[in-house]
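Dear colleagues,

As part of the handover before I leave the project, I'm documenting each prediction I ran so the next person doesn't have to rerun anything. This entry is a single chain, and its sequence is reproduced below.
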Amino acid sequence: MSFAILRTSKIGSLGKVGAVGQHIHRTRKTPNADPTRSHLNQFSPGTESTLDRVKSRLPAKVRKNAVLAVEVLMTASPQYFFEKSAEQIDEWKQASLAWANQYFGGTENIVDWAFHLDETTPHIHAIVVPIDPKGKLNCRHFLNGKEKMSELQDSYAEAMKRFELDRGIKKSLAHHQDIKTYYKLAKTRLTSLDKHMLKVETIVGQIQPPTTKDLFNLGKWFEERIRKPLMKITHFIKHLYISKKKLEHSLQDQHHTNKRLRNRIEDLENRLAGVFSRLGLTENDLTNDRLTRPIRLFSKKIHHNQKLEEQDRARLQAQQEADEINKRLVLTHAQPSTDVAPDWIDHPVPMPTPRPKFRL
């Protein structure tokens, strides 16, 4: 199923009008456009700039907060154009421009347009100066609230029915993500991937075999040199794997994927494969706990043994302190030897038991 796509953007200053004109006429750098296909683009007749055309159509007096122009973008789902011939695409372009002329008050209001074929999906930019039937600059006549916007979408979808294009879902919560936001998000993810990959490579490079000294305390060596680094590596690798999948999912929606993004992902995959190879792992090991489960079990056993050793040391210390206390009691109550046993032997005076001092 393919959809008819229509988006509008209000322009409130002449500076922005000039910037939009530079974009649609490719007089400024466009990162997502293919320079080798720029010759296929089509533009409205005339040599005047978009800014001059808008100025010539505006009335003499314009409110300070008025909408000077509206940028209308018309296109369809990317898959719709895959198997279409140049003639069929041109027919769709002519029908879209004809609808725009009719809906926005005639060719006088459509002061400029451009048909782009150098990007991922063919699309039309139309610059409309919103002059209403009374001759006033009145954007509200065409775009005023949800009802007007819904009527706009209905009207364009009706005109596109003969091309087997459907209207989008009404009251959908989906939002368009512009190309700048997409590239910014992709750049952020790639930067995060680079940082985590550097951490993984650093940790892997620090893993060394045990020295002779470490052989006398393998538990401590394993804890500090193997378990902790490997747990960090596992965390970073999982993050890398998830981020890589997110990037791949985003790229699936872009049928003409940017070459630079592909090269960066391949580089990350190669570096990640190098880490897997060095550790003797595969991507499946991240899901079946081949790496983390033995580490957790061994760590749990070490922790249990350390706890038993601490308990033994505490009992031994308590026994030694108790023996010391008993010795002091005997020395305190000892008397010179006589033939008659002292009374305190038969009736010993209860002595307070000193509180043992445990060192934790």
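The chain has ten helices and five strands. The first helix runs from residue 14 to 24.

All the best with the project,
I.
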